[in-house]
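User: Here's a chain of 317 residues. Predict its fold as tokens.
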Amino acid sequence: MKTAALLLLSCAAFAQVKTPPKPAPAPAQKSAFDKATLEAYLRNVELFQPIVTAKIDDAKPSPDVPGFFDVWVHWSANGATKDELVYVSKDGKKVIQGNDVHVFDVNRNPFQANLDKLKVDNQPTLGPAPPANAPISLVVFSDFECPICKEEAQILREQVAKQFADKVRIYFMDFPLDSIHPWAHAAALAGRCVYNQSPGAFWDYFDWVYENQQEIKPENFNAKFQAFATDQKLDGIELGRCVENKGSEPDVTREIAVARSLQLAATPTLFLNGRKLEGGIPWQTLEQLINIELDRQTKAAAADEKCCEISMPKIGK
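Assistant: Prediction complete.
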């Protein structure tokens, strides 16, 4: 009897001991290197509608943010496009979004990453005649149909080029915003055609486009361009053939690629010795910035601060 009772008590005690539940499996770790995962995450951040489509490039080690990878995301909807650069950590867990991520090395020029991308050889340029080396390089990305670019163009031609004739070299770069400006791309092609035929005539074309911006339409651009060529005694037949056959498309495509590598989002955008200045810059502000940079260089030269020297590529034409 005792044995039976002990057996019953033992069974009862055993029944009261609950088997601990198995721990829930850890959620699967997502990786931003998976393009579908990254797209879904960014869509959630931006609350994009389904109409917006995405194309994601393969990840490449970032030259600007050590320990991260560059991933270009190309959004599009109804003909409009947006190119966005995001940075993904090596483990795929962290994503940095934004166009103004800066990692500085105190032993290098803080704008060296921009200067390395600003390929200005064979670009229209104004300034001290070679081999003189201007202390200020002002690279201007512009759109011929952009009203704010027209205002900035007047500042460059009437103020900067005259007041700082021996101090500032201006470089022009095309960045036509095709999605909102229907004739800007054709104007960029025509400008490069003029430059390739007669580099000095480019600035006459530059002035002419902005002066006539209000009258130019997609349907009358070619006729007006031929009239310009005749007035300037240029070879209109050759220029017309160049525009029609898109002979200058590789030049414009290269300029746009430079703009995108610098993550431009608006025109005009200026780079003053590598410093990025977005939007229209009033003359008083631009004048002050140029003078500040000239003063900084003077003090740097006196202190022999070789780390901060500015160097731009040699001019082509």
